[in-house]
Design the sequence.
């Protein structure tokens, strides 16, 4: 099996992807990547901290090489979101979980690149379907080049991820394919909504599990597999990743109606204006159906004309002040707690501690 350590290949005259190179210093991450809140235990560890920072820098370099293209348009559109930055949560999880085994294996880095490429590809598609004007503080690709180019760019990045994962072997390819299937099903089910006989909340949680939880779980799993960890540990990380992904998205729902302005550049209430179902709104509708007069009053604002900034701000403020918003935080925290509980079988140490801390941090953030 070809690995980044024993092969050389290029994209459009750019340098070899993943070839062996000197380890950069911890200040070499020019893109400004930093370990997210919740990973303080890693930063303070004399072994894992520097190793993880070095690996993240290598992944960032490999990521840019993987999307490089000789076609000027394809190169520009593919680089658009990579250069906008991002938390790199999925590759970070893959790398962190690899520290439960042999994290020095070159396949670990390639797997980390695969999951981030997959995530980036979904963002191009999501932004088109949501008509989102901004992503990570920059105009979305479809705003710059149009819907067709943005969709095709997402497809191109998926193709690059497929090339890389095919080199990792049949099992990795199977995980990627099943994850891709769930990503598509999650988007499809979100688009068409719940069936008449289906509970909207149950439907929504499944959408989040498919659209976000599946890839977060695959990230943890691939990092573990290529580090050679025990299958029992691998299953623990899959369960953790799925629950973590749901908790992360549920927190995003609440942040949309409680934050002054999120760091991505997204205006508070964007989901409300676009009619995207989120947990606070679903709980609000449930409360209104149950006879809660205050919920019905807020629902009138939420379902009204939100085209003006004043109307949107009023709806956001009303929803944020209603008890369903705090109830939504409670639901998000419960999923985070379940993610932490899933880690009980892992050996004690900095990796387990950081995974647990991160699960709690994703529902305690404000952006």
Sequence:
């Amino acid at each position: 099996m070809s690995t980044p350590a024993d092969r050389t290949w290029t994209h459009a005259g750019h340098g070899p992807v993943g070839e062996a190179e000197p380890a950069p210093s911890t200040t070499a991450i020019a893109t400004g990547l930093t370990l997210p809140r919740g990973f303080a235990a890693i930063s303070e560890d004399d072994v894992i901290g520097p190793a993880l920072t070095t690996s993240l820098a290598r992944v960032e370099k490999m990521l840019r090489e993987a999307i490089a293209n000789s076609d000027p348009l394809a190169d520009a559109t593919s680089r658009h979101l990579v250069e906008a930055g991002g938390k790199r949560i999925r590759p970070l999880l893959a790398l962190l979980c690899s520290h439960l085994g042999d994290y020095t294996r070159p396949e670990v880095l390639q797997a980390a690149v695969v999951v981030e490429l997959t995530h980036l590809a979904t963002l191009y598609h999501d932004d088109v379907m949501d008509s989102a004007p901004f992503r990570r503080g920059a105009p979305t690709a479809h705003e710059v080049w149009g819907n067709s180019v943005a969709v095709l760019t997402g497809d191109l990045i998926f193709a690059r991820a497929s090339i890389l994962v095919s080199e990792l072997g049949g099992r990795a390819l199977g995980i990627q394919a099943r994850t891709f299937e769930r990503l598509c099903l999650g988007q499809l089910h979100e688009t068409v909504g719940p069936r008449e006989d289906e509970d909207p909340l149950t439907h929504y949680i499944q959408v989040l599990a498919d659209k976000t939880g599946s890839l977060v779980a695959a990230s943890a799993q691939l990092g573990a597999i290529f580090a050679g960890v025990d299958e029992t540990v691998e299953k623990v990380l899959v369960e953790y990743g799925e629950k973590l992904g749901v908790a992360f998205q549920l927190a995003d729902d609440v942040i949309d109606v409680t934050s002054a302005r999120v760091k991505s550049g997204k205006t508070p209430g964007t989901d409300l204006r676009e009619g995207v179902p989120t947990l606070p709104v679903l709980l609000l509708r449930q409360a209104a159906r149950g006879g809660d007069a205050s919920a019905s009053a807020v629902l009138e604002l939420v379902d009204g004309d939100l085209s003006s900034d004043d109307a949107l701000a009023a709806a956001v403020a009303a929803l944020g002040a209603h008890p369903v918003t705090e109830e939504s935080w409670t639901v998000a925290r419960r999923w985070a707690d379940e993610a932490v509980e899933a880690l009980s079988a892992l050996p004690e140490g900095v990796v387990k501690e950081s995974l647990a801390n991160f699960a709690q941090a994703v529902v305690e953030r404000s952006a």
Notes: The chain is about 65% helix and 0% strand.
